[in-house]
Each structure stands twice: as structure tokens, then as C-alpha cells.
Amino acid sequence: xxxxxxxxxxxMNDILPDEAELWLWFEELxxxxxxxxxxxxxxxxxxxxxxxxxxAIGEVTDIVEKEMYSFADALNGDLLTLRPEGTASCVRAVxxxxxxxxxxxxxxxxxxMFRHERPQKGRYRQFHQFGVEALGFAGPDIDAExxxxxxxxxxxxxxxxxxxxxxTLGDAAARNRHRAKLIAYLEQFDADLEANVSxxxxxxxxxxxxxxxxxxLDSKNPAMQQIIAQAPKLWDxxxxxxxxxxxxxxxxxxxxxxxxxxxxxxxxxxxxxNRTVFxxxxxxxxxxxxxxAGGRYDGLVEQIGGKxxxxxxxxxxxxRLLALLQDDGMALPKAEVDVYVVHQGELAGQLASRMAEQxxxxxxxxxxxxxxxxxxxxxxxxxxxxxRVALVIGDDEAQAxxxxxxxxxxGEQERVSVRNLIETVNKFIx
Length: 430
Ligand code: ATP
Ligand code: MG
What we know:
It contains 15 helices and 16 strands. With about 425 residues, the chain is α+β, with helices and mostly antiparallel strands. The strands form three sheets. The chain has an eight-stranded mixed beta sheet with strand order 1-5-6-11-10-9-7-8, with helices on both faces. A five-stranded mixed beta sheet has the order 13-12-14-15-16, with helices on both faces. Strands 2-4-3 form a three-stranded antiparallel beta sheet. The chain is elongated and about 95 Å long. Bound molecules: adenosine-5'-triphosphate and magnesium ion (MG). Adenosine-5'-triphosphate binds near residues 115, 122, 290, 291 and 319.
């Protein structure tokens, strides 16, 4: 057996205690924010049948083609996948448990997602999202509400330099007409079909030409940009209903003073979107600038076996958001210790642990010294812990049922009866 230290899987990060403080702080704030809009928590498994994602996300998407952690269960051969996103699982759970029977649902979840991508700053193989889904709402009001609520969160977080990109993908009929025109246009640049092409489709585009041409417009390959710029526009095909829906979304955003930029090339990487789509982007995280993305997906519920149900949602990437916060100079919140309990001698040890429990009953954060050592060395630990107060208990104090309370920021040490402990400690802390 080798003694080499084992490392975490590439692209999957440990979140160490100092950083975890920031995560906890953010998660609490995010939960409060979601609850303030009436969203309720739902928790799905991290592993789902592979078929779910193939059906929901689409076979010809980056995620399904090359990013999923899929495997056969070695014990029974089931085909399984670590979830690459939450929407499919959430809709599956809602259908399986008939949650839409009585009323529409506003739901959220958070946790790790898995995608086998090339790891780089802001792009990991295990990353974390907060995901929000509203199921059973058809109108533009909910699309706009979800965008407005994001704007409110950025505000709460004091985020600068995030902007909103907005587009509409229209409905199925318009997309089909556009698709036919797009294929005809793009075929002109397929070097296999046309002999003398000046510009040519890249390999990804060729593969998608007949299966998912809309996604070609999403290509980040510089060599494709000129072809994309002149492609037929989906917007020219949009029907009145979809346009009206989009107008209304924009009107609500304006009323809420949420600025946006219309980006007709925003198509999103998953198949299930229709009508409103949006991304919140920043210029400060390099190529990984999208911190939150979502939109309407009216077809998905039916696609995975339910009755047709309108739906809209979004997901934000926690790593990218926190990176942005830190880039903004946000200091890491530090968990504070209120009291460090120093003790020596057997009787003192017993009193010390009783006193520590009592202080915790009054909601104080207490570190009880473990491991013995001289008073002096224990006091050094108390100092390093950042505690505001040290309790000092020797057998002498213990015999008298008393403790010494020492304010760490200077000031006189006081010896008090255990009955007056809480009061004395609080005096120094408040
Ligand atoms: P990108 O274009 O950056 O690949 P995406 O369109 O694949 O993003 P979504 O599926 O919309 O991303 O996921 C929503 C959000 O989750 C993204 O906006 C981003 O903040 C975050 N995210 C997605 N993939 C990753 C990843 N591999 N690592 C870290 N965060 C990610
Ligand atoms: Mg991606």
C-alpha cells in the first residue's frame, strides 16, 4: 500500500473553516431573502436516474453530451447521474409527490451540483447553487418578480458591477420556424456541403446543425462570431402573445428600477427554456462572469411526464457570488468566542464544565479548555481564541463555589460566586 497523501478529486473543493464562515453567513442571508418572497425549501437526492437529465436538459447540450458524472450502479446496473443542476430533480419530485394538485408552488433548494468541466477559476466539477422554481404560474408577473428578487439580493449584498441580460425565446412554433431558417442559413457554411466557403462552422456547430442549431448562436468560439452575427433572428418570428408577455416583463422591471440590456443572442445552455430568459453577469470574474441565470420553462413538466404546467426559475452559483463579494473587499465574518474557560485541578475541572454548560444555556459561545497545562499556557490559548472573557477556576475557587472572571481587553479580574456568574460575564461582554 502506498503512503502518498490522497488528494480531493480535481475540481472539487474543500471549504475550510475560515471560508465556511462566509458560506454560512451567505446561506442564512439567502434563506431569509427566499422566505421573504414566500419560497419554501425542498431537498432532492444528489443522484437521479440518468434518463431524467437526458429527457429534461436535452441530449444535445453541453451538460448531457460531455459534463455529466454518469455511471452504472455496480450492484444492480441502474444508470445513475450526479445531478448537474436542480430543476429537473425539483420538477421530478413535484410530480412524484403531486405537489401541484392544489396550488402553484414557489420552491427553492441549495447544494452541490456536479459537472465534468475543465476546472478553472469560477468553474468547478463540484459547485454549489441556490435554485428557485415557481411552478404553476403563467403570467409575466412571476418572471419579473424573480428578476426583481435577484436585484434585491444583490442590493442586500452590496454587489457592484452586476448587470442583467434579458431575452425572450418565444414559443415552440416560432422557434421551429426560426430553426428551419437557421439551419438553411448555417448549411451555407458547412464545408462538407459547400465547396468554397470563406467562413466555416466549427466542429461543435457541425454536430449541432441539425439537432440543436439554436445552441450554435451561444458559441463562444471567436471564429464563429461573424457567422452568428448575420444569422436569421428568432425575434423576427415571435408571435403576439410572446411579445406581449415580454413587454409586460420589461414594464414591471422598469417600474422597479431594475435596468437591463436586451441580448437577442442569449439562448441559455439548456433545452427546456421558452419565453423569458435572463442572466446576471459581472465583468469582474473573467470568462466565468455569469453569477445567476434562469428563465421560463413551460414545456418541462409535460416533458417529464406531468400535465402541461407553466414554470419559471433561476439558479445562482455560490462560488462565483462569494468570489465577487470578496473581490468587493468584503471581509470574512469570523465566528466569535465569548468565553474561554481556564481551569486547573480536579474539582476545578468539574466546576468548569458545569459553568461552561450554564453559559451556553444563555446563548454564549464557550470554549472549555481541554488538555490541561499551566494557567499561563491556558491563558495564552484564551488570548489566541479571541474570547472577550476568560473564566479562571482553580481548586481554591472551586472549593468556595466561586469563579474568577477576567475581561480579556483589559480591566480588573473579578472573583464572584457562581450564582452571579452570568451577570458578571454579561457585564463584560455587552
Ligand atoms: P456557464 O455558461 O458559465 O457554463 P451555465 O449556463 O452552464 O454557465 P447554469 O446551468 O445556468 O450555468 O447554472 C447557473 C449558475 O451556476 C451559473 O450562472 C453559474 O453561476 C453557476 N455554475 C454553472 N456551472 C458552474 C461550474 N462548473 N462551476 C461553478 N459555478 C457554475
Ligand atoms: Mg456551463
